[in-house]
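Here is one chain, start to finish.
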Amino acid sequence: MMQLRQFNDEVLYAVDPVVRVGRTDISELIQRVEHVARKRARICAHRDVADKLHEMLIVHTRDTYVRPHKHLGKSESFHLIEGAADVVVFDDQGNIADVITMGDYSSGKTFYYRMADPLYHTLLIRSEVIVFHEVTNGPFDRSDTLFAPWAPEDGAPSRKQFMERLAIDVASFRSRKS
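Its structure:
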């Protein structure tokens, strides 16, 4: 069993010199999100926020709100392991610029993306749970993440309505593109 150091309810750091993550570890992470207010949890394969490379295995539920944000001076790669989600990319005014329909490898959908430019984005989770591997460059500095001023803050009551409206807007965006 992998050794983990708990940073908070959502974040665990692997401490072994060789990090190995298996189905049991992910199952435990999925169980953890049921008891966490923001419905998300992660295992960090890097050891510290100061590391130059950050690799994380992350679980979100359908009820997880990811406030639209962009990363200044960083790239991000995202590999969907389990579940289904839309990655919604916005322009700076909050208009949908792109929708990446994602599923695991066996789904035949896109299962990986890399975002090199600072673009606002969020997740619209389409399955009960998603499991993904995310990689970005460190060190972690909260000021490198710019949250969209046109989106509700994390924990705001209006976030549910925002996500319901976003689902409608994504469907409309798709119909215009087809």
